[in-house]
Each structure stands twice: as C-alpha cells, then as structure tokens.
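Exercise: predict the structure of this protein bound to copper (II) ion.
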Amino acid sequence: MSPRLSEPRKQVRRVLALAMLLLAMLPAMLLAMLPLHPAHAQGQEPVKIRIPITDAGFDGQSGEYTIEVQEGALVEITFVWSHQAYPLEEHIMVFEGYKVESDKIDAGHREATVKFIADKPGTFGFKCDLECDLHDHLQKGRLKVIPRGGGGGGASFSATTLSLTPSTWATGGDPVNITAVLKDANGAPVPKAEILFTIAAEFVGTKGDMEIGRARTDANGVAFFEFQPTLGIKQHKITAHFSRMGIYEQSESSVQIEEVGMPPVAYEVAPIGLESIAHWAPAVLLVVVLGVWLTLGYVLYQAIAIARLGCRK
Ligand SMILES: [Cu+2]
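Solution:
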C-alpha cells in the first residue's frame, strides 16, 4: 500500500499552494495600483533655449537668426523682452509648421515660453506676429530640426481629452451651442488649440465627415461652436477634432443631436419671399421714378409761368 495523505493534510497543501500563488501575483498587483505616469511629455529632459529680444532683433541680430535642435527633442524656447530704446514694444512669437505661439511679452511681462516636441525635421520660420516698431527685424527666426536618423526614441506627446457639451440634445431646427473643453492628462486646460468640428454626412451615397467650423480654445481650454442644423436628417453626429500641437497628443470626441420635427429647408423658404419681391420691385421703382420726374416737371412749369408773369409786368 502506497502512503496516502490524510484529508486534513491535503487541505493544508491546497491552502499553501493558494498562498504561494497570491504571493507570486503581489508585485503585479502593486504595479497596477501605482499612479499613472505624469502628463508631461516623457522620454528626455527638455532642451531649453533662451532668446533675448533686443532693439536690434533676436539676440542682437536683425537678419537671419537660427537655432538648432534634434528631431524628437522636447524643446522649451523662452523669449526674453530686453529692449532699451523701445519701452512700449510688444511681441507675440509664432512658429510656422509647428502651430505654436507664445504669450505676449512686453515691459511688464518679459518672458514667454513655448513648448513643443520637434517631431518634424526641416527648417521652420518663427517671427513676431504683432505690428511692432521692430517688426522687420523680428521676421527671420529659423528653427532647424536636425533629422535623427534611424528612428526610435524621442519625447512622447502628452495625452489630451476633449469633451463636448451641447446646449440641447434635441432640436427642432434651432441652433445648438456646443462647448468643447480640451484638457491634458492632469486635467489642466490646453489653451490656444484649434478645434475642428465636422458632421457625419452622406454625399451621393458616400459617407464622410464634412467640416462645419473651427474654434480656438481660450485660457480655460474652452472653445464654443454654434451648430445650425440644416440637413434635415434625424440625427446629427458632430465630432470635434484636436490635432497634435506643441507637446499635446491629438484627441477627438463626438455628440449625437436628435432632430425633433424637421427644420425648415433653407433653400425653399427664403428664395420664395425674395422672388416675389424681385417680381414687383421693378414696377415700384418705375412708379417712384415717374413720380419724381412728374413733380419736377410740374414745379418747372410753374416756375416758368411765374417768370413769364414777371416779364409782362
Ligand atoms: Cu514684435
């Protein structure tokens, strides 16, 4: 007879096995409970560049002024107001190709920083966008993004969330105000971001998204859009899109607004009224013009008659 374990011993073994399993899973469970990465762009330390804006231009140069960064770098460029002879100068710096712009700098608010991930190689212009006295000397900034080659690496974009709230979820054809709010992963607002609004539509049997408007987020990350339902369909699916900008990853969000009662079809109502006006407008004009000429003629006739009476005396 082979030795057999008694029932209680079997039970102890089962409990021990379960405990071992739980112990093995503990690190994974702890990892899952850790907070997520912060929302800052990850991957590397930012490349920080300071550019004084002097009476002569960018860092004293009125011609081309070039800065260089590596592709994939997280870049922080700080413009520093450093005028001496122009105390009233104000500047806003814009980067072409990267869709970023600085806050306004002036004598009271001397520094503004733009942050972005240099994900596109090439040379891009940056310049002052305000009509300042030194405008011509602040047009030839160049950002040179040197290709990394080989790919891989580079800072990663910070996630964003876009939320939409319509003023009503059902409309009988009246305009609907849509509020879009763009936030980063920490819940901080993303300002100066362009939000593109589209509507799901069907053209000649092909379904697609049709652009219906654009709006820019304010300091609170809020953009407003007024939607005018004109398509006469049961449901309006409106989508807001935010494309990659600066250090922020793209995001989008949709709402569906129900049509209760068909809206008046735009091309029927207005033209009918206009057409009837167009019909009788020339006749009215003719009558008015004739009236004016008749009155003038009568006055002239009277004046001649009076003049003749005067001559006879
Ligand atoms: Cu300027």
